């Protein structure tokens, strides 16, 4: 039986990835600081522990796995990574996780390793025009990420690819663009824009106002979780090391995102634009490279994923109220 290790299995993407690998017949070990708060784990073995601890990393990498997915990181939405209040923790925690994991994997001769980077590592000056952001993979240098979160991701990309060159480890690196879907963080400050908007719309009555950070004209693209997993697995099993974007090319403004979710909910809502962290003005995935290298790119329309996500979050809002 094929085996897989998923680090960050208690998180949103990791939890869904475990289910996908189980459906393919893998024996899966999940690792995280905690269980997923929104769904039971499908992992055969779920180990609770701190990947910042090198001894713990060596204990969970006790064999040669067929596939390893390193998703664990200290992260969150704009309200967490762009305020500056968590910069030291973000850099320290995520860097330690990656330094410990890559060394533990090397010592056990693991070779098929996926690392999840982020579009936050792209230069901020390439994302000032909300209508024409530049997120082509080779635009990463000269480096100038918009946050310390992005700087750590850029460092860790180079870490994994260095181990490729020096130890023949066959690491694969992808830059995720705003992954969303059910069973993810939807409240508490670490949620991302689609979940936050779905929660606000679900909590409001038709005719009321909801708060939006900034003027709402900042642009983003959002990728549904199933499409993210497909791209992730295809990349790991390919001959291309990356880095490569895994994201949607369907760019919308935050105002448009609110309108789409409001339409799904059947509500007419007003937008109350308030000061708040917004990150770069524009960001969108460029999928030319992934189409060329994997003969595939995400294709599902944004509204389809939002319909599923809104239904799930609306259920949580009702249950809590």
From TrEMBL:
It comes from the Bacteria. Its EC number is 1.1.1.364. Pfam families: Epimerase. GO terms for molecular function: oxidoreductase activity. Residues 4-247 form the NAD-dependent epimerase/dehydratase domain. PANTHER family: EPIMERASE-RELATED (PTHR43574). This is dTDP-4-oxo-6-deoxy-D-allose reductase. It comes from Methylobacterium dankookense.
């Amino acid at each position: 039986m094929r085996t897989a290790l998923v680090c960050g299995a208690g998180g949103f993407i990791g939890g869904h990835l475990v289910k996908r690998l189980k459906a393919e017949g893998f024996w899966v070990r999940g690792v995280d600081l905690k269980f997923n708060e929104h769904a039971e784990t499908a992992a055969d073995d779920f180990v609770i522990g701190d990947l910042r601890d090198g001894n713990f990393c060596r204990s969970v990498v006790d064999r040669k796995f067929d596939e390893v997915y390193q998703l664990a990181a200290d992260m969150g939405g704009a309200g967490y990574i762009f305020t500056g209040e968590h910069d030291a923790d973000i850099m320290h925690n995520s860097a330690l996780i990656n330094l410990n994991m890559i060394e533990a994997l090397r010592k056990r001769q693991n070779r098929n390793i996926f690392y999840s980077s982020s579009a936050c590592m792209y230069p901020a000056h390439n994302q000032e025009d909300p209508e024409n952001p530049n997120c082509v993979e080779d635009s990463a240098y000269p480096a100038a990420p918009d946050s310390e979160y992005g700087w750590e991701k850029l460092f860790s990309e180079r870490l994994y690819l260095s181990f490729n060159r020096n130890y023949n480890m066959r690491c694969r690196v992808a830059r995720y663009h705003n992954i969303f879907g059910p069973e993810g963080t939807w409240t508490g400050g670490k949620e991302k824009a689609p979940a936050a908007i779905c929660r606000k719309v679900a909590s409001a009555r038709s005719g009321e106002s909801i708060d939006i950070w900034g003027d709402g004209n900042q642009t983003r693209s959002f990728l549904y979780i199933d499409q993210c997993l497909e791209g992730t697995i295809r990349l790991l099993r390919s001959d291309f090391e990356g880095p490569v974007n895994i994201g949607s090319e369907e760019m919308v403004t935050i105002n448009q995102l609110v309108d789409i979710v409001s339409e799904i909910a059947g509500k007419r809502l007003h937008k109350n634009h308030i000061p708040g962290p917004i990150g770069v003005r524009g960001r969108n995935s460029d999928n030319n490279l992934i189409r060329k290298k994997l003969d595939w790119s995400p294709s599902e329309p944004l509204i389809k994923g939002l319909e599923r996500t809104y239904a799930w979050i609306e259920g949580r809002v009702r249950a809590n109220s």
